[in-house]
Amino acid sequence: GAVVSQHPSWVICKSGTSVKIECRSLDFQATTMFWYRQFPKQSLMLMATSNEGSKATYEQGVEKDKFLINHASLTLSTLTVTSAHPEDSSFYICSAAGGRSSTDTQYFGPGTRLTVL
Amino acid sequence: QKEVEQDPGPLSVPEGAIVSLNCTYSNSAFQYFMWYRQYSRKGPELLMYTYSSGNKEDGRFTAQVDKSSKYISLFIRDSQPSDSATYLCAMSRTGFQKLVFGTGTRLLVSP
User: Fold this and answer.
1) Are B95 and B102 in contact (CB under 8 A)?
2) At B60, phi and psi to the nearest 5?
3) DSSP-derived 3-state class of residue A86
4) Do A103 and B95 touch (CB under 8 A)?
5) Chain B environment of A41 (Cβ under 8 Å)
6) A108 contacts on B by Cβ (under 8 Å)
7) β pairing state of B105-110 and B11-14
8) Cβ-contact A6, A96 below 8 angstroms
9) d(CA A94, CA A37)
10) What tens-digit pLDDT sequence spans chain B (111 residues)?
């Protein structure tokens, strides 16, 4: 089956630093990747959608200058949290789809837990 | 009010029981309804999806959608300890993009 990995699985950083999270599709080409955020006891919230080779589309309320998304290849997307603050501490999870159609299934990565001190 | 409401549980049942998991929603434009299973430290895995109203069965799992009541259900028959996980409902207007998730219900099936 389709496998999506994330690295790192958890990260602790100091306030003000930047953190990069990688999302890889291991056995298929991911034309579209999605980034979600989940706070404790809350639901997964879509942050942005990225298509390979294009700029990401951000959901309302998500700062594109703070959460930089790069989808430069068909197997790799990165999310960089710039100048991280404690309120950015959350569980970040990516998913990948093999096409751009709305009927293409998303396959999820295992998530990255970010803690900002 | 959240767009999708789901009881976080935990829901504890004995092995072999029939499990009923539910979500309610407020946006009548939702047309696609999904159920995901998430084991600890793993990403969500798609179990089933349904378009519009009706029932869908896959092995021990049955998904039901009642759009008139804005209520969806997932039934698990003959539950097993390996079914212990968090079950997330998700829905959208346009397929698998722009998914709106519930908070997930934690299910514990005891031997």
Assistant:
1) no
2) -80, -5
3) helix
4) yes
5) 8, 103
6) 36, 43-45
7) parallel
8) no
9) 9
10) 789 999 999 999 999 999 999 999 999 999 999 999 999 878 899 999 998 888 999 999 999 999 999 999 999 999 999 999 999 999 999 888 889 999 999 999 999
Helix (H) or strand (E) holding A4: strand A4-7
User: How many whole angstroms separate alpha carbon B22 and alpha carbon B89?
Assistant: 8
Closest CA to B32 of B88, B74, B95, B89: B95
**Residue A44 to residue B41, Cβ atoms within 8 A:** no
Q: In three state form, how does the secondary structure of chain B look?
A: CCCEECCCCCEEEECCCCEEEEEEECCCCCCEEEEEEECCCCCCEEEEEEECCEEEEECCEEEEEECCCCEEEEEECCCCHHHCEEEEEEEECCCCCCCEECCCEEEEEEC
Q: Is B64 on the interface with A (CB under 8 A)?
A: no
Q: In a 3-state reduction of DSSP, which class is residue A38?
A: strand
Distance to chain A for B28, nearest Cα, Å:
19
A18: tokens are 């930047």
- Whole-angstrom CA distances from A96 to A43, A92, A99, B22, B74 are 19, 14, 9, 26, 25
**CB–CB of A108 and B95 under 8 A?**
no
Instruction: Read off the DSSP letter of residue A106.
Output: P
* Spatial separation of the C-alpha atoms in residues A47 and A60, rounded to whole Å: 8
The answer to whether B48 touches B74, Cβ cutoff 8 Å, is: yes
